[in-house]
Amino acid sequence: FAINKMPSGVAIGAFFLYAALTGVTFSVLFLVYTGGSIASTFFICAGMFAAVSAYGYFTKRDLAKMGTYLFMALIGLIIASVVNIFLKSGTMSLIISYVGVLIFTGLTAYDTQKIKKMSQTSDIDSEQGKKGAVMGALALYLDFINMFLFLLRILGDRK
């Protein structure tokens, strides 16, 4: 990743810039979905994210193997999504959304545990530790965003 070549301060700034751009991009969701459905989906997603992240943090079970399978499932999900662009199947879109929620739920637990293990073995004040923290924050941010978008496709009321 390019993050290994940049100073940690630049990596943090890039993360905040990415988050801000994502926020601006997501403003168009209010043109497609009702405000109430966006809000309720957000709170459902936040609750799910918190519960699954807590599981990943506190479980004694090693989730490392699960990460490999989830990554393969994510690749399959991307392929299915691309195929469905051409098929335009509503049923397939709904199935993809449910599978996406499951994948990103699992990735949230996996990434949380990975960050916890990393924090126990590295010095957070070092340059590498700070970069690891940014990568961990980005992973969880992407997990949340994707889980939210898939849930919104399932639960959202279109205007």
Commentary on this structure:
The chain is an all-alpha fold. The protein has one domain. Helix content is 83%, strand content 0%. It has six helices and no strands. It has helices at residues 8-26, 29-32, 35-58, 64-87, 90-121, 127-155. Helix 1 packs parallel to helix 6 (127-155). It starts with 7 loop residues before the first helix and ends with a helix. The model has no long low-confidence stretch (mean pLDDT 95).
Structural class by secondary-structure content: mainly alpha
Q: Uncertain regions: pLDDT < 50 for 5+ in a row?
A: none
What is the overall pLDDT average?
Answer: 95
- CA distance, first residue to last residue: 40 Å
Total helical segments: 6
Order of helices and strands: HHHHHH
User: Into how many domains do the coordinates divide?
Assistant: 1
The biggest beta sheet is recorded as:
none
Q: Strand-residue fraction?
A: under 5%
Helix content: over 70%
Rg result: 17 Å
Count the beta strands: 0
Which geometry do the CA atoms define?
globular
Structure at a glance:
The protein has 159 residues and is mainly alpha-helical.
Topology:
Elements: H1 8-26, H2 29-32, H3 35-58, H4 64-87, H5 90-121, H6 127-155
Helix pairs in contact: 1-6, 3-5, 3-6, 4-5, 5-6
Q: What structural keywords apply?
A:
globular; 83% helix; mainly alpha; single chain; 159 residues
